Amino acid sequence: MVIALLGFVLLTGGCTQAGGRGGTEARGYEGTQNSGAVVRGCGSTQVYEEPHRMLPEGVVKADEMAGCAVYTMTIQEASEDDPADIKSLWLYDLKTGAADSLFTTNPHAELRWADMNGHPVEVALTQIAAADKVCFVPDHPQLLLVEGCPEARNVWTYIIDLEAKTARQFPSTEGLLSFSASGDTLVLGAYRYHEEGGRYSVARTYTLDGQFIKEEEIVN
After folding, report:
1. Continuous H helices in the chain
2. What are the beta bridge partners of residue 9?
């Protein structure tokens, strides 16, 4: 059975730590990850095929916008070997109650720092290392910011396109500092080293599609 759903009422969303908004919403889980339910992003025409997936027990709401919510579920807690929790991410249609599993974080994701050279790189959803912070990009409900610290040192930051099911990893080591008011740019923290020793922090501004705009030293 195919149901065409058009339009959503725009809801306000914001960046929070996963679980920092809305608490836990537990539901029974029906089917498997190959059950056939498909969610093609928020705020666009969506097609669902039976059987509809439902949110599994133990999920925690991270954020919501434009009729969709994103949830996280901890599959394995951090340990000495893996400093970050392993989590699955779920997209949930608030109107229909249909859910879709987006991906599960991979603590052994491929290191891409050497490939960046100051610019983001495309990564597979199977290569997202951690998800300590999850939120929609302001005024862009098809885009999701995900970041975490999988090796107890650097924050890995991603922008995920929910419609294309693609991701960019940005060359940030200290995480999101802010979005612009329009949500069209983001500022990420990173660090550099002084020639005489020691390091300092910088703020790097990028467009959402990864174009570098400027870098400024952060003066404490």
Report:
1. 113-116
2. none
In angstroms, the CA 158 to CA 53 distance is 26
Q: If you average pLDDT over residues 127-153, what whole number do you get?
A: 95
Q: Are 147 and 179 in contact (CB under 8 A)?
A: no
Q: What is the C-alpha separation between 186 and 206, in angstroms, rounded?
A: 6
Q: How far is CA 88 from CA 2, 28, 207, in A?
A: 26, 16, 27
Mean pLDDT (whole number) for 136-162: 95
Residue 62: its H or E element: strand 60-65
Asked if residue 5 lies in contact with residue 45, where contact means CB atoms within 8 angstroms, the answer is yes
| Dist. CA 150–CA 100, nearest whole Å | 24
pLDDT in tens, 157-187: 999 999 999 999 999 999 999 999 888 999 9
Q: Report the DSSP beta bridge partners of residue 118.
A: none
Q: Does residue 218 carry a pLDDT above 80?
A: yes
Reported pTM: 0.77
In angstroms, rounded to a whole number, what is the distance separating the alpha carbons of residues 179 and 185?
A: 6
Buried b (16+ CB within 10 A) or exposed e, 56-82: bebbbbbbbbbbbbbbbbbeeebeeeb
Q: Is 219 left (phi over 0), alpha (psi -120 to 50) or beta?
A: beta
Q: Is the pLDDT confidence value at 11 over 60?
A: no
C-alpha to C-alpha distance for 91 and 8, rounded to whole angstroms: 15
